[in-house]
Every structure is written in structure tokens, then in C-alpha cells.
Amino acid sequence: MIKLQCKQCAANLQGDNNSQVYFCLKCSLAYNLEKNGLISFPVEYQKPQLDIEGESFYFPFWFFKTSWSTNLEPDNRTFFCWVTAFFIRNINNFGDIGQFYTLRNVQLLPDKKKKFKMTVADRNLNTALRYPEVYLYLKERTHKNFEELKINVLVEEVKMVFVPFFLKNELLYDSQLNCQYPKGALI
């Protein structure tokens, strides 16, 4: 049995029965639940890019700094990738928010933690690590030699980032791209 306590301060970690990632908000650490224990990662709070009135929530995202190259262009390049740490209901209707952030180059802009409600993280690191390569293939799909393209990705840095969303009139507003989602699509 794994103790759900912070390794730094011994506080009980926050999460629920479906969580794959737990949080110590005092130490700003995310703990990914693994078979043999908890692995910690730093937590950041994203600065809202839009000022929206309404009830405030933080949604967790995995944030990866990667270097990548291809068999056709071997020079390493940096790629920042956002992956939702929560599952989106009806993703076919609403799209992949992490993909939107990644392909629109949303920048990591740290902010002070605010007293927002927290949502659970039910997508673990191992699942999230599949996405940088997928998003790079989506980004490069217009490459003239796409069918021959083989992408190599190296994850250099992993963080958990809480992004503010605002609930107003039963719609959740994304503070980065101003996308709107029905409340039931995300929480």
C-alpha cells in the first residue's frame, strides 16, 4: 500500500478515488502514482491571459519541454507540449485542449497561486508521455515528405501546470485561448 503523503512535508496529498496524480499544494508538488510508489514533479500556476468573471477553477496539464529531430532534418529543435491531466468528456465534440495549446504555442507564464477550486488529475504521466510525438506528427503533417518522416522525441523537462478556467452561465472559459466548453464537458 502506498502512503499518499508528501515526501517533503508529510502532509496528506490532495486527490480523489479516480486520481492518478496527487498534489501537495503547500510544497507545490505533483505526485504521479506508479506501481512502486509516488514520483514527484514541480507544479506551476499559469497566468490567465484573459480576464473573465466567474467561478474560478484550476485544471491540471502536463507540460513537457522536448527536443526533437527527424530522419530528414537531424538538427534538434525545442518543442513545448501541453497534455491535459484530466479526461475530456466528448472529446470528439470539444477537441483536445492540450493539442490546441501545443499547436498554438501557448507559452508557460508562471503566476502566483490563487484560491481557485482544484480539479482532479486522472491522466498519469505514462499516458501523457505518448502525446508529444503525436502532436509533432500533427504539426508536421504538411511536410512535403510526410510519409517518409520519422520523428525522434526526447523529453527534457516535466512539470504539472494548473491553468485557470472560469465558469459563467454554465460555460467554462479557458483563460488562455478563450475557448468555451459546456460545464459537463470538463467537470
Description:
Strands 1, 2, 3, 4, 5, 6, 7, 8, 9 and 10 form a ten-stranded mixed sheet that branches. This protein is globular. It is built from five helices and ten strands. The chain has a domain at 45-108 and 123-186. By secondary structure, the chain is mainly beta. It has helices at residues 91-94, 97-103, 125-128, 131-139, 183-186, and strands at 21-24, 29-34, 37-46, 55-70, 77-84, 110-111, 117-118, 151-168, 171-174, 180-182. The two termini are 29 Å apart.
How would you summarize the topology of this molecule?
Layout: E1 21-24, E2 29-34, E3 37-46, E4 55-70, E5 77-84, H1 91-94, H2 97-103, E6 110-111, E7 117-118, H3 125-128, H4 131-139, E8 151-168, E9 171-174, E10 180-182, H5 183-186
Parallel strand pairs: 3-8, 4-7
Antiparallel strand pairs: 1-2, 2-3, 3-6, 4-5, 4-8, 8-9, 9-10
Keywords:
single chain; 187 residues; mainly beta; 10-stranded mixed β-sheet; 5 helices; 39% strand; globular
